[in-house]
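Troubleshooting: if your tokenizer reports a length mismatch, compare your output against this known-good record of 204 residues.
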Amino acid sequence: MKLTDMKCTEFITELKGPAPVPGGGGASALVGAIGMSLGNMVGSLTVGKKKYQDVSDKIKSLMEKAENIIEELISLVDKDAEAFEPLSKAYGLPKGEERDIIMEDALKRASEVPLIIMEKCCEAIEVIEGFAKYGSIIALSDAGVAAVCAKAALTGAALNIYINAKSMKNRDFADAINEKADSMIKEYGNRADKVYEEVAERIR
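Known-good structure output:
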């Protein structure tokens, strides 16, 4: 069964168990999808309201982007598990040159999905900014929660990159993906914080 076909309670049971997947990467993707879904809810509560008629087209455009991001993040829950499986097996191989080669390839593959998760979370934060700016005031708190979730997913996925990069022999590649992760956190983590702060100020 695909992880994303599980009930919430089933997924949580798997997550808290001893199996290596689902793990932090899949959980981050799911949290990102939840955050983007909350953002989309803001749009759903805004479209069709007379008060927000002037921004209706903007909201509809944001909702379309949100739907694509949600779909992609959900698919990344299972893709992360698939990408981690070869690495999990590589750790069980006897030490030697062959293991090192297999391990290096597996570490790179296991880092690719978290990097994509981060990129999608950055896109989500951009969309959430729009929902917070143009969306219905009655759902403004949800835009704030969406930003919190998106940042959590962003920084969570980064940890999966860092831990894999630390074990890589190719330090140039490791440094490059670490720098990508750092850059996204610096820019989009701050942007998510700004959404949260502005929402909190407006609703208190």
